[in-house]
Amino acid sequence: MKGLNQFAGFDFERFCQGKRFVATASKEWVDYDTKQHLGTVVTVAITEDQTVYKPGKDGKAISNLFEKMDWKVERDINIPVGVQVEPVEGVATIYGEYRNQLSVKVADIKVIQPTAPVSGGKG
To answer: Fewer CB atoms < 10 Å away: N or C end of the chain?
Structure first.
């Protein structure tokens, strides 16, 4: 992901403004060390990014369109693939060698609307 350092201290709510998220997968959230069940991890893709970022170091415009991230929820939830979602009370931490990764925990995930199915033929 790009432009994460513009949200120092990380203001996840502000980062989410101007974005549309769609659920792409979900799985059990398990503690790496203890293997204890912690809840659900929902992978989301950014399908719209209207956020105005500062230009990159090379002066080019940046966007996080189609980037994916995992949202961790401390309970079991069932979010269908392909639905538009919003985080509820999200907290994010920047990590990684280049400070370009997010670890996101949310209190809940709100389903906004189903995304129309993709059809290759006539109905």
So the answer is: C
CA–CA distance, 99 with 93 (Å, rounded to integer): 10
The two tokens of residue 105 are 């925990």
Name which residue leads in pLDDT, 37 or 115. Answer: 37
Q: How far is residue 120's CA from residue 100's CA, in Å, rounded to a whole number? A: 36
d(CA 79, CA 54): 33
Q: How is residue 63 written in tokens?
A: 């966007």
The neighbouring-strand residues paired with 106 are 73
Hey, is 54 helix, strand or coil? coil
Using one digit for the tens of pLDDT, what is the confidence trace for 34-47? 999 999 999 999 99
CATH architecture of the domain with range 4-114:
Beta Barrel (2.40)
- As to burial, measured by CB atoms within 10 angstroms (0-12 exposed, 13-18 middle, 19+ buried), residue 63 is middle
